[in-house]
Write a structure and sequence with these properties.
Blueprint lengths: L1 H17 L2 E4 L3 E7 L2 E6 L2 E4 L6 E7 L3 E11 L5 E12 L2 H6 L4 H18 L3 H6 L1 H17 L3 E12 L2 H42 L2 H16 L12 H21 L1
Antiparallel strand pairs: 1-4, 2-3, 2-5, 6-7, 7-8
Helix pairs in contact: 3-5
């Protein structure tokens, strides 16, 4: 009778032993527990655990995970209400800690990220949030990195994705941007007029000392006017008369000053 049951017993024992086989992929690690106590890691590849509940393996994915943080309504330091989206990248670097030190590591990291996002935004003005994104992103990562390290998790990146402003604030910022552009345009125009006036003053001084150059310029002006096929009448005054009139004006001014 015992010999008859022996094959069945062997089959049962073999089935029990085979039930302890586990496979961990290259991106997975098995955290082994024996009678409730941690016994290290297993994998990747094929490994065996003692069946019948004596040993248990918790499979952990160690690849980088990307989590999109839902839109958060928060208030900046200068009391502006904005809606902010963010993206979080993290990975498990210590599989044992991620199982033993925290329950549901992914959910814990996500909630910590939302809290950190609201806190960091609340410590900065709106202009800083919009213009200094690299600084804000660095602070976001640092704000949760210390806590996640205790859970065996490394935060690779934590960055703002979108910043949504109230409609009234958008209009105010648009008006401000328009005023800045108008200011720049006026400054550029004034600088151009100043430079042109300096060039004209230098040219006039040079021509005043060279009557031939002045005559050439006058003839060029006549040619430009005649090229437009209009009925403009041009009255030419020799440059000698202009020079004489300037000399006479200087002479009269000098005499007037001497009498006084």
């Amino acid at each position: 009778m015992m010999l008859f049951l022996l094959p069945y017993v062997a089959i049962v024992v073999l089935a029990i032993l085979l039930s302890g086989l586990r496979i961990a992929q290259e991106y997975q690690r098995g955290v082994l527990f024996r009678l409730g106590r941690s016994r290290g890691l297993r994998g990747p590849g094929l490994f065996w655990i003692i069946p019948l509940g004596i040993e248990r393996a918790v499979i952990v994915d160690i690849r980088t995970r990307t989590v999109s943080a839902e839109q958060q309504e928060t208030i900046t330091r200068d009391s502006v209400t904005i809606n902010v989206n963010a993206v979080l990248w993290y990975r498990i670097v210590d599989a044992a800690k991620s199982v033993i030190a925290v329950s549901e590591a992914g959910s814990a990291v996500y909630q910590l990220a939302l809290t950190g996002l609201r806190n960091i935004i609340g410590q900065h003005d709106l202009d800083e949030v919009l213009q200094e994104r690299d600084k804000i992103n660095h602070l976001l990562r640092e704000s949760i990195a210390s806590s996640t390290t205790q859970w065996g998790i490394e935060v690779e990146r934590f960055e703002m994705k979108d910043v949504e402003l109230p409609e009234a604030m958008q209009q105010v910022m648009a008006m401000q941007a328009e005023a800045i552009r108008e200011k720049r345009a006026r400054i550029i125009k004034a600088e151009a007029e100043l430079e042109a006036s300096e060039k004209l003053a230098a040219a006039s001084e040079r021509m005043a000392g060279n009557p031939a150059a002045l005559e050439l310029r006058r003839m060029q002006m006549i040619a430009e006017v005649g090229a437009e096929n209009n009925s403009t009448t041009v009255l030419m005054i020799p440059s000698d008369f202009v020079t004489l009139s300037k000399t006479l004006s200087d002479y009269l001014r000098e005499r007037t000053s001497n009498k006084t």
